[in-house]
Write a structure and sequence with these properties.
- The chain is α/β, with parallel strands linked by helices.
- It has eleven helices and twelve strands.
- It has a six-stranded mixed β-sheet, with helices on both faces. A four-stranded antiparallel β-sheet has the order 2-1-4-5, covered by helices on one side. Strands 7-8 form a two-stranded antiparallel sheet.
- Strand 9, helix 7 and strand 10 form a beta-alpha-beta unit.
- Helix 6 packs parallel to helix 7 and helix 9 crosses helix 10.
- It is globular and about 50 Å long.
- 38% of the residues are buried.
Length: 253
Amino acid sequence: IPAVKGNIKFHHVSFSYEPDIEVLHDIDLTVNPGETVAIVGRTGAGKSSLVNLGARFYEVDKGEITMDGYDVRSVTQQSLRRQIGIVPQDPFLFSGSVEDNIRYGRLEASRQEVIEAAKTAGVHDFITNLEHGYDTPVGERGGNLSAGQRQLVCLARTILANPPILILDEATSNVDTNMERIMQESLYRLAQGRTCLIIAHRLSTVTNADRIVALEEGRIAEIGSHQELLSKQGLYYQMFGALNAPHQKQLNN
């Protein structure tokens, strides 16, 4: 697949991990280039399954998923994955230096490009305060870094890769409030001009999305902006409105 603009379409997609037990039912959704779409729903609603199909970690049972008009099953996985940057809930770091882990996003990148990516991710100051800076070794899976620090290094890696499509899978769920604020600012910068799919539980992660897709038992229950879905007082309101009433009141004021 050539470089894409980031138009993603789910055409009546159904999917099951086990035969005859569907977890997604007839999903019909278009994500426009440069649009940020948040996927929300209760546990088991099918959020991760939906975005994993988009990255072709699994194959659809029915329907098709296209990227700029290309059926994702008709292109090589390598060329498809090159278009997508993923910041997972549990970021993976490997044994090597901090710089090695960031450069994995684009192996031919210079040190200065690695540093610029770290600055954009909001992790540069932390790295420079390490004993050996960017040359500081990290243990297997980044065991000598905090969850938030690992997440920011993973974010810098994605920034360096500079993909047209970005998938964030609960990226801020395991970090404290201060680290979440840093990540939110970094993610906002990263999202500019890209197509973004965000899976999130935290209200603060999705309120500024262009659209929010609420899933229920593998089906799309409602789609709209934060305010539109709150006004409907449906599934999204139940999940985030009622449970975060004081925060909602502050936002609406």
